[in-house]
Amino acid sequence: MNANLSGAGRPNRGLPPRDPQAYVIEIGETQAGLVSRRGEERFFTFIAASPVFHAIEGHRFATPDAAERAARQLASLRRRPNQIPS
Asked: Which of 3, 6, 74, 84 could form a disulfide with 11 if both were Cys (CB 3.0 to 4.6 A apart)?
């Protein structure tokens, strides 16, 4: 069997490489950060745009929506510091 290898050393199964993807994550009027992935990557990596969101800097998410949910949860904890998440 002759399989082409992608840049990550995995067979690409004859599929064309995906383009890189990036999405801005905003919480209200605040730019929390962005998520991006290269064509061969499976997960999106979060890059914080504000110190408020540094806690999730570098975290990897399956979808941009999952990253947005994490940023929203972090922002809500910052607004209510006396509440402990369940």
From this structure: 3
Characterize 26-37 residue by residue with b for buried, 16 or more Cβ atoms within 10 angstroms of its Cβ, and e for exposed.
ebeeeebbbbeb
Q: Are strands 60-61 and 21-27 parallel, antiparallel or unpaired?
A: unpaired
Cα angle 12, 15, 39 (rounded to 5 degrees) comes to 75
The pLDDT of residue 69 is above 60: yes
Q: Beta partners for 30?
A: 27
Question: C-alpha distances in angstroms, 60 versus 4, 44, 80, 81?
Answer: 27, 5, 25, 25
Quick one: pLDDT at residue 1? 36
Tens of pLDDT, residue by residue over 35-66, are 999 988 999 999 999 999 999 999 999 999 99
